[in-house]
Amino acid sequence: MKMLLGAVADDLTGATDLALTLSREGMRTVQVVGIPPVDFDYGDAEAVVVALKSRTIAADEAVALSLEACRRLIAAGAEQVIFKYCSTFDSTPEGNIGPVAEALHGHLGGALTLACPAFPANGRTVYRGHLFVGDMLLSDSPMKNHPLTPMTESNLVRVLQQQTALKVGLITRDWVSKGSDQIGAAFTQAAARGEEIVIVDAITDYDLRAIGRAAAGMRLITGGSGIALGLPENFRRAGKLRSQSTAADFAAPQGKAVILAGSCSAATRRQVSVAIEAATPALKLDPLDIAAGRTTVDAVVDWVMSATDAIPLVYSSSEPDDVRRAQEALGRDRAGELIEQLLAQVAARLTSLGYCRFLVAGGETSGAVVNQLGVQALLIGPEIDPGVPWTVSIGRKEPLALALKSGNFGGDDFFLRAWDVV
Fold this sequence. Notes:
Layout (H helix, E strand, L loop, with lengths): L4 E5 L2 H13 L4 E5 L13 E5 L7 H17 L4 E5 L12 H11 L5 E4 L7 E4 L2 E4 L2 E2 L18 H8 L4 E4 L1 H4 L3 H13 L4 E4 L4 H10 L5 E4 L7 H7 L18 E6 L4 H12 L4 E3 L2 H5 L5 H10 L6 E3 L4 H11 L1 H20 L3 E7 L1 H10 L4 E9 L2 E7 L6 E5 L8 H4 L5
Parallel strand pairs: 1-3, 1-4, 2-3, 4-11, 5-10, 5-11, 9-10, 12-14, 12-15, 13-14, 15-18
Antiparallel strand pairs: 2-16, 6-7, 7-8, 16-17, 17-18
């Protein structure tokens, strides 16, 4: 038995989101943290998602990591590869979406591929090549204030063409709404025009399933997790899909719990506010205090241990102006790194004190926490909100339950409801 579908994701929470989609659509899915060893045992996984931390690193490093992950997946039998990035197309003018997509495109043969970050269940849609967040253009949404990857352009053809030498085209919903056969015809015409990667409109899950069906023969597909909705059915029609999802196998370990929030997105800030209003014990972190030694791992761990009446929340979520001031004082990357490192060290200390259930908000924070805890792989469990499942660590002596949430995902009461699922 071999893997059918391999995926390279540019951050941990995005990988979990994609793994959940594939699992829910009937593929036995395993998520691996970091590039897997050559001899890694994927078990009977039909889909494997490799979670990298490559969204905001130097483009050449992101390309090297993504190519190596792709090589491991192909060597293990993957017939098709997904490059997964955020549904808000998070990137800088230089990348890393374009450079990584270009490198994978060349490595996998250079045939036409597509780019579609749409995720309608979370309000991300693409129309006439423009990305919307809810009713707003991406450039008008809170993503324009993202501390690392501010998105001030909504035209994805323009954004992607700025990042890659590949010729970028567009397939509008005029084609997509007519179904998979017409989308396939549009792919053929795009290739004939010399286009190498096409932005594809999608405003509903029906669109995404039709796109997925039309892309059955593509070696490489790029997009958000929504683009995977129609892919498992292609393998099922070909008689290659042999199992159901792993969610039924999920069993969360029992023990102490904590919420660690490093994201400063608008959604996470609302979640923090709702949790505090509901009397959740909460401790706010300031990167300036961490840098000055006024806030330490020991102090935070002691505070968490003292919160015995409810699940405590440790957070750094701040308004854009506060984030900007910290970045000006410490440097753009350093401010975030201080928070991530402290929360990761706090998580590691808490595991030694009986904590085994962690809800972590923020892609960079989740990556830091999981790496610090030595988690190599995750089994996907039940969905809390669109794109966010509970997971349980695989291969660790003492298993951990982890809910790894992208900063932009989840309802306002997410921190309160997540625990009901387990």
